[in-house]
Design a protein that fits this description.
This protein has helices at residues 2-12, 15-50, 83-90, 154-167, 175-180, 214-224, 245-254, 265-304, 306-314, 319-328, 331-357, 369-397; strands at 61-66, 97-103, 107-111, 119-122, 125-126, 147-153, 182-188, 193-204, 234-238, 256-257. The strands form 2 sheets. The chain has a 5-stranded antiparallel beta sheet with strand order 5-2-9-1-10. Helices cover 53% and strands 14% of the residues. By secondary structure, the protein is an alpha+beta fold. Mean pLDDT is 80; it is low at 10-17. The longest helix is centred in the C-terminal third of the chain and has 40 residues, at 265-304.
C-alpha cells in the first residue's frame, strides 16, 4: 500500500491534480455555504412572521369587502356578500376566525355639545366583541338604556383635529376629552325619531367604522330599520399571516379588497422568497459542479495508478481495501469544509440577529437545526457520489 500512497500524494501535488483538487474543495465550500445560507434565511423569515415574539396583534385582523367598479356602481346588491361567498371565505385555510359586520338600517345624526358646533350624519356598525381591540367595562347595552356606548376609529379624530378643526377655527380635542363629552345621537326612520346620549368608550386602530354593541344594533334595526334585512357588505377575519400570498391571491381572484397597508408586505415577501430560492438554486448548481470535479479528480488518480492497482490486486490486496483507503483521503476534507461553513454561517447569523434586535425584531442567535441537517445531508450526498465513483473505476481498473 505504501507505493500507492506515495503515488497518490505525488499526483495530488502535481499541477493538474492540485488545481482540480483546489477547485473541487472551493466549489464544495461555496456550494455548501450558499445552501446553508438559504436554509437559515428561510428559518429567520419564518421566525419574523410567526414567532410570538414578533407578532403584531392588530395586523392579524382584516376587514374585507368587494371592490366597487364601474360595472356595479348604482347596484348596491352586487356589493353584498351572498351566503355562498360567506361560506367560501369561512372555509379558507388562512382564516382563524370569522365575523360579520352588521350595518345600521336607520338614519343617525350625531352632534357634539357646547361650542364645538359639530354635527354630522353618521352610520353605525357592529362586530362580534372578540374582534375588538378596545376593552372597556362600559361596552354593553341593554334594552331601555338611553346611553349608547360608541367606539370611534382613531383616524376620525385625527381628521377632525388636523383637518376640519383647523379649517373651521375650532378647538382641537384629545381622546380623553371626547370620552368625557356626551354626544347627542338622533336615530330616525321615515316615521319616527328619538334622541339618545352617545358615550365614546374608546378608539379603534383595527376597524375604521363607528361601532356600537351588537345588542343595540339588533334592537335598533328591529325598531327603526327602514328595510327588512341589511345585506352583509363587509366581513372581518383573523388570519395568522396578512401578507400570505395565498390570501392575497384569493382576494384578487374574487374581486375582494381590504386594508392594502396590511397586504403590501406580500410583495416584499415574494421577493425575499425568490431571492432565497435563487441562492439555494445556485448552491445546488455549485454542489453538482463540485461533485463533478471531485469525480473527475478521483478518475484521474485511479487512471494514473492503474498499473499499481493491478499490481496490488495481483499481490492479494482486495479492491475493497483500495476503495476504503482512497475514500479516507477525502473524508477529513469533507469534515473540514463542513465545519468552516458552519462557523462562517454562525458568525453571519450572530451579526444578523444583533442588527435585527436593534429594530425590535427577534431571530435566533444561533443557526437552526435545519442548517445542521443540511450540512449532514450535503456531506452525505458528496460522500455517496464519490463512493459510487470509486467503486466504479476501481472495479474497472482491477
Amino acid at each position: 500500500m505504501r507505493p500507492f500512497f506515495e503515488l497518490l500524494k505525488k499526483i495530488i501535488h502535481t499541477g493538474i491534480g492540485k488545481s482540480r483538487f483546489l477547485m473541487a474543495s472551493v466549489g464544495l465550500g461555496i456550494a455548501m455555504l450558499l445552501i446553508l445560507v438559504a436554509i437559515q434565511v428561510h428559518s429567520n423569515f419564518n421566525q419574523l412572521l410567526y414567532s410570538t415574539k414578533n407578532q403584531n396583534e392588530t395586523a392579524d385582523f382584516l376587514v374585507i369587502n368587494k371592490k366597487i367598479t364601474n360595472a356595479i356602481m348604482g347596484q348596491s346588491g352586487k356589493s353584498a356578500f351572498t351566503p355562498d361567498e360567506i361560506n367560501q371565505i369561512k372555509t379558507q385555510p388562512f382564516v382563524q376566525a370569522f365575523g360579520l359586520i352588521t350595518s345600521s338600517r336607520f338614519k343617525v345624526v350625531v352632534q357634539a355639545p357646547g361650542d364645538l358646533h359639530f354635527a354630522t350624519d353618521m352610520f353605525f356598525e357592529s362586530v362580534p366583541d372578540s374582534f375588538l381591540d378596545v376593552k372597556n367595562d362600559d361596552w354593553k347595552w341593554n334594552a331601555g338604556d338611553r346611553t349608547i356606548p360608541i367606539i370611534l376609529p382613531s383616524d376620525f379624530l385625527n381628521l377632525y383635529n388636523f383637518g376640519f378643526s383647523l379649517s373651521q377655527d375650532l378647538p382641537q380635542i384629545s381622546q380623553e376629552t371626547v370620552k368625557a363629552l356626551p354626544l347627542q345621537v338622533v336615530i330616525s326612520n321615515n316615521i319616527t325619531s328619538e334622541q339618545y346620549i352617545g358615550h365614546v368608550v374608546g378608539f379603534s386602530d383595527r376597524i375604521s367604522s363607528f361601532l356600537v354593541p351588537a345588542s343595540f344594533m339588533s334592537w335598533a334595526n328591529e325598531k327603526y330599520g327602514t328595510t327588512r334585512e341589511a345585506p352583509i357588505s363587509r366581513v372581518i377575519i383573523k388570519t395568522p399571516d396578512p401578507s400570505s400570498p395565498t390570501l392575497v391571491k384569493f382576494l384578487d381572484d374574487n374581486g375582494y379588497t381590504t386594508n392594502q397597508d396590511k397586504l403590501k408586505f406580500s410583495k416584499t415577501r415574494l421577493i425575499i422568497q425568490t431571492i432565497v430560492s435563487v441562492i439555494g438554486f445556485f448552491g445546488l448548481i455549485l454542489l453538482l459542479f463540485a461533485m463533478l470535479v471531485f469525480s473527475m479528480f478521483i478518475q484521474l488518480i485511479i487512471a494514473s495508478c492503474k498499473r499499481e492497482i493491478q499490481l496490488l490486486v495481483m499481490l492479494g490486496t482486495a479492491p475493497r481495501q483500495l476503495k476504503r483507503y482512497l475514500l479516507k483521503q477525502f473524508v477529513p476534507l469533507y469534515v473540514i469544509i463542513g465545519v468552516v461553513c458552519l462557523l462562517l454561517l454562525a458568525g453571519l447569523q450572530y451579526v444578523t440577529a444583533s442588527v435585527l434586535a436593534k429594530h425590535d425584531m427577534v431571530v435566533s442567535v444561533w443557526p437552526g437545526p435545519g442548517v445542521f441537517a443540511g450540512t449532514v445531508l450535503v456531506l452525505g450526498l458528496v460522500y455517496f457520489v464519490n463512493l459510487l465513483t470509486v467503486n466504479r473505476y476501481v472495479n474497472k481498473e482491477s
